[in-house]
What we know:
The protein is mainly α. It has one domain. Helices cover about 75% and strands about 0% of the residues. It contains six helices and no strands. It has helices spanning about 25-30, 35-55, 60-90, 100-120, 125-150, 155-175. Helix 2 packs antiparallel against helix 5 (about 125-150), helix 2 (about 35-55) runs parallel beside helix 6 (about 155-175) and helix 4 runs antiparallel to helix 5 (about 125-150). It is flat and about 55 Å long. The N and C termini lie far apart (about 60 Å).
Amino acid sequence: MKTTAxxxxxxxxxxxxxxxxxxPTCCCCCCCCLATAVTTPIVLHGGLRRxxxxxxxxxxxxxxxxxxxxxxxxxxxxxxMSAIVVTVFAGGFAADLWPVAIGGFALAALGGVYAIGRxxxxxxxxxxxxxxxxxxxxxxxxxxxxxxxxLLYGSYVVIGPVAALIGAVxxxxxxxx
Length: 177
């Protein structure tokens, strides 16, 4: 028996209307959230590093924790994005439970980032959770705006990478040493 791999069609390849188009379909999702996917980790890492520097010297244990804490916040961001993508696209939950699942993942990530800030001895660990909350809101807004622009005009495929580049440059300049 001959089987054919099932791939969802994408609008950028020849034969896109064919239900077995052999191209991955991640271009829309990646472009629609590219700017926040790139800039939020920069802001999380740089912001917590700045908060830790402002807190002054800590205990020897806190000093050891401060080395890895900014990187851990970036890991939490990417785990959150992965959990959202798996929830929506892998069908792990019924569609009517997506908001509950995504909200639960977001709350867990906010709590995790807050705990990382406290663990490292940041002066204001809630500021780190606030940066993540802002990244989550921007991610959602960019996703829906990007999908709208891709579906209606196909323009976000060009605008997304430009916005990501501009956002990354601004974030790096704001949080460099």
